[in-house]
Design goal:
Keywords: Signal. The protein is mainly beta. The chain contains no helices and 15 strands. The N terminus is likely disordered.
């Protein structure tokens, strides 16, 4: 498993609130990379992540690779200008010796947000990349090794608080809290917890 960089916060900060949590992003004098694309623009992404799933106290770590798509929405002016960024598609594949092949996809479009540090200055920004996932595996760690598909109960964010370009260029997004995934075929049965999901994203070439 690769070692992921840690997002550092330096200098003055601005606050970014999304679905009940508050994040901080560095407010520096550099302007970063370009400007946010126009509303309605869809951006194709290349994604490289490390998933950690836990069931019954056992951790399973594996790499996932694939693609995603986000769509830029309307902008809202203010001291910290905001724009909606919707995750409209995602398709990742990985492999674990015990779980077999694992596929990860976006269950339904999910709304995140891009927050600039100040009016007239878009970078460094904070972005929440919304995830509403379906995770399928050949051998369930909670179901006696049978094939199973799990899903998140609700959309959740992956966060980058120091984004220097959009579309992202090798930007690392991190979870804010563990996420429970329930078995679609047996919702009342044992669940899987997604404990880590650092995801490196760049614009697809």
């Amino acid at each position: 498993m690769r070692i992921r960089p840690v997002l550092a916060v330096t200098g003055a900060v601005f606050l970014f609130s999304y679905n009940g949590f508050t994040a901080h992003a560095a407010a520096r004098s550099d302007s970063g990379g370009g400007t946010l694309p126009a509303s309605g623009t869809t951006v194709a992404l290349s994604e490289d992540g490390d998933m950690v799933l836990e069931c019954n106290g056992v951790l399973h770590r594996f790499e996932v690779l694939g693609t995603g798509q986000v769509r830029v929405g309307d902008k809202v002016a203010g001291d910290q200008p905001t724009a909606a960024v919707q995750t409209v598609a995602e398709q990742l594949t990985g492999y674990d010796a015990e779980l077999g092949t694992v596929t990860v996809s976006e269950k339904s479009p999910a709304a995140g947000a891009f927050v600039a540090p100040a009016a007239g200055r878009e970078f460094p920004a904070a972005e929440s990349l919304a995830q509403d996932l379906t995770v399928s595996m050949q051998h369930s760690p909670c179901g006696g090794g049978q094939p199973a598909t799990f899903e998140s109960k609700a959309a959740f964010p992956l966060l980058n608080t120091d984004l220097t370009a959009f579309p992202p260029q090798n930007a690392v997004y991190l979870m804010t809290n563990p996420v429970e995934l329930t078995d679609i075929a047996n919702p009342s049965g044992p669940s899987v917890t997604l404990t880590e999901f650092p995801l490196t994203i760049t614009q697809a070439s």
